[in-house]
């Protein structure tokens, strides 16, 4: 089963203290120092305080260094394939809610690839849907990530989107300068030194503080315990706060029933608005698809399958399907009464087994070749942990006037009520990258 709880993460990092290990495991632990790879992420649909962060966008330098501006096509396309494959693997292992950031995970893995060699590296690229990676294409990938990070950071006007990487290294542990250099250069990684070995409790507190700071207080206690044998920890975080382009009026939000399945209903705060939306019906998939734009260059696409058709849609989720929806949505607008639940989701995943299923195997075993990080020691990755939080609400601490004037036609428009399980995809339109994917099955969970 998939790790879906914070407790599961705690177990993953937790009781592995040396005292509890059996002898054979102890030897194994001594022979194979551990890297912990960690991915943190957060999203929220609420309004943000209008602090503008100063950005230094090194576009000029980038153009000079590499002669041409990449269109990010290689990584955007691979990331979309990766997103839907990961979704399917996760959906195969849980019957409940899903929420994760494929971009956060693929970025962390791409950074890690800087330190991998031979078969370990090939498996990693294949898992990321990056095929036949020559040295030249690897260089292009790294430049693309650099540009992607810059583009996302440049969007600080109307939506707040922060993604970053950090490396936390055991004091005195020799990490190759080339790995650190490239991590900083292409992935903008911050590098910190910690003493996991002598003082794991202090390391834990510092890491929790760091994660808390980077997720603006949303993720407070990421770690319950820290493994003393940790040599390096890689953290990627993504923070997204968008304001709906068409906010909901809180006065219209009502408690209604959400149909979890044939036998169970739960209550949910249902937001409402009447407006013109980009929406389509996908008859092949028995679904209605609507686009809910945020201010700035991001949107949510929500897919509402007919009763009992969720799995059918999930089986048919693909890069091509997504592109088709995006393209059709651009041309189909109509008046509609939208009902959309006000929800919060918080999910944690240990992705080791899932990534292994996707072909990324050696990384987690003694066969791992991480000689690009350190030549002196045998390293492996102990876990890829991911935590994601979603808050969707009306988004209006602003004046009620911001809700805008609703034009209600004489005849009542159709109602689209998200009062049963549905899928949501949040994507950045400028770089065409999927930031988050989720499935709401039971809002009470
Ligand atoms: C789900 O997982 C099972 C067991 O690992 C596997 O046999 C099956 O093919 C998977 N189904 C899908 C749709 O991936
Ligand atoms: C890792 O890969 C490099 C480059 O292919 C190779 O020289 C080295 O021997 C490998 N190390 C291990 C431990 O397999
Ligand atoms: C890393 O970067 C520093 C400063 O930018 C440079 O002096 C050093 O030679 C680089 N090292 C490697 C191994 O690339
Ligand atoms: C319906 O959902 C409830 C709550 O999640 C669950 O306990 C129950 O087993 C589900 N019933 C069916 C038929 O799936
Ligand atoms: C959205 O992207 C366009 C380029 O396609 C850019 O000019 C614009 O500044 C972006 N908008 C915001 C709010 O960042
Ligand atoms: C419309 C469509 O693509 N349907 C496919 C959805 O997935 C199932 C199972 O994989 C296929 O049998 C359908 O053809």
From TrEMBL:
TM region positions: 30-50
Residue stretches making up the Serpin domain: 84-443
SUPFAM superfamilies documented for this protein: Serpins
Primary location class: secreted
PROSITE patterns from the UniProt entry: SERPIN (PS00284)
UniProtKB keywords: Glycoprotein, Membrane, Secreted, Signal, Transmembrane, Transmembrane helix
Family membership noted in the UniProt record: Belongs to the serpin family.
Protein name: Thyroxine-binding globulin
């Amino acid at each position: 089963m998939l790790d879906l709880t914070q407790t599961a993460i705690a177990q993953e990092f937790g009781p592995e203290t040396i005292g509890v290990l059996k002898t054979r495991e102890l030897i194994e632990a001594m022979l194979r120092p551990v890297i912990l790879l960690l991915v943190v992420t957060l999203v929220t649909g609420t309004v943000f305080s209008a602090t503008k962060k100063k950005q230094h966008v090194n576009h000029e330098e980038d153009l000079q260094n590499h002669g041409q501006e990449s269109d990010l096509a290689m990584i955007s396309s691979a990331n979309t394939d990766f997103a839907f494959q990961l979704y399917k693997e996760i959906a195969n292992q849980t019957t409940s809610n899903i929420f994760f950031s494929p971009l956060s995970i693929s970025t962390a893995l791409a950074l890690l690839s800087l330190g991998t060699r031979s078969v370990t590296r090939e498996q990693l690229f294949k898992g990321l849907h990056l095929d036949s990676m020559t040295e030249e294409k690897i260089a292009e990938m790294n430049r693309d990530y650099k540009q992607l990070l810059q583009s996302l950071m440049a969007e600080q006007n109307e939506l707040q989107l922060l993604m970053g990487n950090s490396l936390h290294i055991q004091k005195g542990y020799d990490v190759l300068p080339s790995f650190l250099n490239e991590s900083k250069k292409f992935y903008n990684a911050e590098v910190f030194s910690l003493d996991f070995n002598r003082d794991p409790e202090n390391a834990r507190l510092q890491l929790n503080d760091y994660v808390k700071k980077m997720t603006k207080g949303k993720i407070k206690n990421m770690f319950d315990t820290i493994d003393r044998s940790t040599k390096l920890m890689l953290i990627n975080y993504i923070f997204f706060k968008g304001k709906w382009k068409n906010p909901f009026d809180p006065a219209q939000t009502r408690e209604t029933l959400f149909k979890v399945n044939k036998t169970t209903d739960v209550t949910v705060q249902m937001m409402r608005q009447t407006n013109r939306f980009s929406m389509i019906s996908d008859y092949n998939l028995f679904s209605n698809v609507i686009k809910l734009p945020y201010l700035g260059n991001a949107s949510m696409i929500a897919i509402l399958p007919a009763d009992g058709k969720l799995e059918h849609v999930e089986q048919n989720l693909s890069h091509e399907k997504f592109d088709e929806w995006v393209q059709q949505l651009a041309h189909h607008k109509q008046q509609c009464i939208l009902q959309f639940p006000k929800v919060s989701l918080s999910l944690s995943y240990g992705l080791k087994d899932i990534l292994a299923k996707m072909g990324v195997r050696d990384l987690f075993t003694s066969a791992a070749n991480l000689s690009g990080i350190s030549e002196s020691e045998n390293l492996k990755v102990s876990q890829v942990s991911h935590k994601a939080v979603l808050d969707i609400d009306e988004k209006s601490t602003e004046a009620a006037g911001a809700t805008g004037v609703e034009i209600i036609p004489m005849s009542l428009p159709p109602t689209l009520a998200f009062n049963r399980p549905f899928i949501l995809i949040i994507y950045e339109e400028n770089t065409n990258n999927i930031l988050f994917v989720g499935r709401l099955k039971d809002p009470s969970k």
